[in-house]
Amino acid sequence: MQLSRIAVAGASGLIGGALVRSLAADGHEVVRLVRREPRARDEVRWDPENKHVDVAGLAGCDAVVNLAGANVGSRRWTDAYKAKLRSGRVLGTAALAEAIASLDEPPRVFVNGSAIGYYGETGERAVDESAPPGQGFLPELVVEWEGAAAPAREAGVRTVFPRTGLVVARHGGAWGRLFPLFQAGLGGRMGDGQQYWSFVSLHDEVAAIRHLIDRDDLSGPFNVTAPHPLTNREITEAMGRVLRRPTLFSVPAPVLRTVLGELAGDVLGSVRVLPTRLLRSGFTFAFPEIEEAIRAAR
Q1: How far is 157 from 241, CA to CA, in rounded Å?
Q2: Which of 34, 59, 149, 272 would disulfide-bridge 196, Cβ 3.0–4.6 Å?
Q3: pTM of the predicted model, to two decimals?
Q4: Cα 108 from Cα 52, distance rounded (Å)
Q5: How many CB atoms neighbour CB 56 within 10 A?
Q6: Which stretches of 91-215 are assigned E, i.e. beta strand?
Q7: Residue 251 Cα distances to 103, 187, 274, angstroms
Q8: 93: nearest Cα among 39, 153, 42
Q9: Domain limits, the chain
Q10: Is 5-297 in CATH node 3.40.50.720?
Q11: How many whole angstroms separate alpha carbon 72 and alpha carbon 95?
């Protein structure tokens, strides 16, 4: 990859922060989109909920990467929080796509973060990018979210949607909450543990995004998940082996539904996703197996 100027929205998040560090370490110029007044030369103001972007700050960018949005699993899905999830993702994507389309010289690629929530509940059935969207709040949100990027695509900008799975990382995301529990010996399966969790190491997540930026022949959705999704029970056992802690506890499904409300469906639901297009594009996972991904995150 030649040295480039790359704008990143969501640069303070788990994936965005890791991506910025990776790009900067290789000498790329990174422009960070911030919601406050800029305090540094590498910051550009934007207000996603009000669909405002300082368009001048995107001038000269070779790529724009959007990883912004409230954490899906951080709290109960109240009506107010659902509205926040939708506005942050859909309006933010639309704002960036419209800003990109308005440039006299737009970037060559728009990488707009997405999620495997697109597929909904799949049970034991494995799905890839050829599968249709599922039913429910998350699939509807992801469809609307990806659709909001249309202005950039219609302007001729290569548009890519990395549909990310559960990121295995020590701090942040779902695994950031799991590690302390397992290290304290309080880890265990959720529900009956038979639901599939499609995971990806943070290292591979960043590498995949950079792969999608680099390859001018890639567009559309790409599942960013390790090639071998496992059940919650299997992942629980792997966490116990790697961290050398017992995994005797379990959280019954009715308790999760009481505590988490509608969000429990995401925890108990089974989403067995395969990264077919990513593998066919020549991408190689550094940590394809769960124990490797857990050790890399320690």
Answers
A1: 46
A2: 272
A3: 0.93
A4: 21
A5: 10
A6: 109-112, 114-115, 126-127, 158-164, 166-168, 188-190, 196-197, 199-201
A7: 51, 9, 27
A8: 153
A9: 5-297
A10: yes
A11: 20
Contact assessment for residue 275 and residue 229, using Cβ atoms and an 8 Å cutoff: no
Contacts of 181 (CB under 8 A, 6+ apart): 187
Compute the CA torsion angle 249, 251, 255, 261 (nearest 10 deg). Answer: 140
pLDDT tens for the chain, 298 residues long, are 676 899 999 999 999 999 999 999 999 999 999 999 999 999 999 998 888 999 999 999 999 999 997 666 555 667 777 777 787 789 999 999 999 999 999 999 999 999 999 999 999 999 999 999 999 888 999 999 999 999 999 999 999 999 999 999 998 877 887 888 888 888 888 888 899 999 999 999 999 999 999 999 999 999 999 999 999 999 999 999 999 998 887 765 555 455 445 444 555 679 999 999 999 999 999 999 999 999 999 7
Q: Considering only CA atoms, which of 239, 208, 266 is closest in space to residue 76?
A: 266
As given in the structure block, the two tokens for residue 142 are 């992801």
Q: Which residues of 250-289 are buried (b: 16+ CB within 10 A; e: fewer)?
A: bbeeeebbeebeebbbbbbbbbbbbbbbbeeeebebebeb
> What SS3 class is residue 202?
helix
Structure tokens belonging to residue 117: 């929530």
- In angstroms, the CA 157 to CA 165 distance is 25
- For residue 178, report the phi and psi dihedrals to the nearest 5 degrees: -75, -40
Gap between the Cα atoms of 10 and 96, Å rounded: 12
* Measured torsion, CA atoms of residues 219, 221, 222, 228, in degrees rounded to the nearest 10: -160
- How far is 15 from 156, CA to CA, in rounded Å? 27
The tokens of 191 are what?
Answer: 């529900």
